[in-house]
Amino acid sequence: MDRELAEALVAKLETAGAIDSKGALSYSCAEDREVITKIIVDLEPSLAHSRAYVERITASVIRASYLNLYKVLGDNLDETTYLSIVRNKILVDVQGKDVLMQIFSSCVLIKTGQVEGPFLEFIQRVCAKKKGNEGGDSCHGENDGSVTKCDAADEVYLKPGCGGFGIRNFLTLFLSIEVSKSLAEKAAAEALADPVLRDKGIALAERKIAILTEQLEESNPILSMITDCMTAEGAATDGGRVEEAKAWALKKVSANQALKVCSMKYNAMMVALQDEDR
């Protein structure tokens, strides 16, 4: 799909109410493929006979609603699971071949909504499906090293004691909150009557969003390296491979330092942006 058609599709989705003022695809639309498919075909009737191509475009539109998750987890989860995670606002991370999920409840034990209160946090770690040094033990296969198959289709084994939680989620949570605030600021600016203030507010909010998004994208591979090092160090330690464990520990320290440098870089960018706005 060329850029012109893509932009026309976005505009059509906005008109149809499928995309909100913050650029997010509605859950109801994402879960109804036919709505998106119809918009695509109405926009470009010549595609009506290219069902496979239209389906790829539809899948790309839907994937946009969970793109950041997909960049981390890839095809480890199916589309339905991804949409469920987004709809329920679940934080997700991956460590080794395990998927980690975290969700917070609203405040409890409070009489009004204007005061602080405790909340509940639920954490689940779904362990790898495949047998071997890197995964759980629910599946088994031949001794030739071929891909293993589970006894029950799509059954996931919860390995006892494989606790712990991904560090990526804490940074993702912070950045997602800041992005949401910036999107709200952009929407508020768009509603201003004064064109000068409106344009200035929109530009500032868009720059904030760009910085925060770029930070998340640059941090992701570093965070993956940290979790991979932790996993490999643990496996080497369990296997009695002392020198290998030390090597992974050093790589982990280096990755942590890279994350600090990355965070300082984007913190400086946000400070500079705020100084410009004064």
Automatic annotation (TrEMBL):
This is 4-hydroxyphenylpyruvate dioxygenase. PANTHER family: 4-HYDROXYPHENYLPYRUVATE DIOXYGENASE. GO terms for biological process: L-phenylalanine catabolic process; L-tyrosine catabolic process. The keyword Cytoplasm does not apply. It is an enzyme of class 1 (oxidoreductase). Its EC number is 1.13.11.27. Pathway: Amino-acid degradation; L-phenylalanine degradation; acetoacetate and fumarate from L-phenylalanine: step 3/6. It comes from the Eukaryota. Keywords: Phenylalanine catabolism, Tyrosine catabolism. Transmembrane segments: none annotated. GO terms for molecular function: 4-hydroxyphenylpyruvate dioxygenase activity. The keyword Transcription regulation does not apply. Gene3D superfamilies: 2,3-Dihydroxybiphenyl 1,2-Dioxygenase, domain 1.
